[in-house]
Amino acid sequence: MVGVLPSVANECSGDSCKNVISMPLMDDMKATLKADLDVTNMNNHLKAYIEQEIQKGVETAMKDVMRQLIDNKLEQANATIEATVHEELTRIGVTYIRWGRKGCPDGAELVYTGQAGGNYYINKGGGVNNLCLPNDPENGEHQPYVNSQVYGAEYRIKADQKQHGMSVNLESTEVPCAVCHRKQRSSILIVPGRKTCYKDWNVEYKGYLMASLYNQGRTDYACVDVNAEPFDNRSSHEGSSVHFYPIRTGCGSLRCPLHTADADVYCVVCTSKCTIIRLVLPEFQIVFIIKS
């Protein structure tokens, strides 16, 4: 409030004058100008503003600190997750039987080596699948009942009829086998009628499809390695065995010329790799394992 007063001395004294400014207006009239300034509200607003800015600064600084801590922890967590995944990938994989060989392809781990076997080829009942019997069996007790179904397997590949690429005479020799484990693989596929794998699949080994003779008891098809070898040096028709005959195509329902009549049937054992991809999201990362 601004006004012209006769005298300021009569208006205020002591603390009542703390916000009053007096100045001469006209010396002859001895008049004064009184300006009553209330700075309380201004001080309150200034205080509130300062407190607000301090709070904003603290919040911003804390957010930066917390974000840095979170980023560091996420980075450590992702590194731990990825290392764990890589470690687990060294353990997991696929297994397959390599028919006709005592060992595994390069890079694959040998689980055990053994002898191919199965049901006697003239039996009309019982199992039909081929077996890879380990060379260190844990034998059961002798039994008197009649139901023998596990016998050794012999090649039936004459020297003048052997498949292209097979280098030894295997006729009437016993068939070895190997159980192999390939690490960091997610799937296994046996492709009949091919000697190469499809895109994104890796060759474990290739060979020829074999099974029992058409008029004998049925057996599984086996993919016998192109570099097949005998189980040992014995070579004779020892009887009571599973037979591994080369097979050929028969056209009709099987479309030719897509296939070739009366031809050997190739086979290839393929595996696919396990890979890691990282999905990066705005606030964190997630690691997935997928099949390539």
Describe the structure.
- This protein is of the alpha+beta class and 292 residues long.
- Helices cover 17% and strands 34% of the residues.
- It contains one helix and 14 strands.
- The chain has one helix at 40-89; strands at residues 2-5, 20-26, 31-36, 93-99, 109-118, 131-134, 151-155, 176-183, 185-192, 202-211, 222-225, 242-246, 266-280, 285-291.
- Strands 4, 5, 6, 7, 8, 9, 10, 11, 12, 13 and 14 form an eleven-stranded mixed sheet that branches. It has a three-stranded antiparallel sheet with strand order 1-3-2, with no helix packed on it.
- Strand 13 and strand 14 form a beta hairpin.
- The radius of gyration is 45 Å and the shape is elongated.
Fraction of helical residues = 10-25%
Secondary structure tally, helices:
1
Compute the number of strand runs. Answer: 14
Poorly predicted residue ranges: 1-9
Write the topology of this structure:
Elements: E1 2-5, E2 20-26, E3 31-36, H1 40-89, E4 93-99, E5 109-118, E6 131-134, E7 151-155, E8 176-183, E9 185-192, E10 202-211, E11 222-225, E12 242-246, E13 266-280, E14 285-291
Parallel strand pairs: 7-12
Antiparallel strand pairs: 1-3, 2-3, 4-8, 5-6, 5-7, 5-8, 9-13, 10-11, 10-12, 10-13, 13-14
Organism: Mytilus edulis
InterPro entries: Ca-dependent_lectin
GO cellular component, one term: extracellular space
Characteristics:
292 residues; alpha+beta; 34% strand
What would a concise description of this structure say?
This protein is elongated. The protein contains 1 helix and 14 strands; from the N terminus they run βββαβββββββββββ. The chain is of the alpha+beta class and 292 residues long.
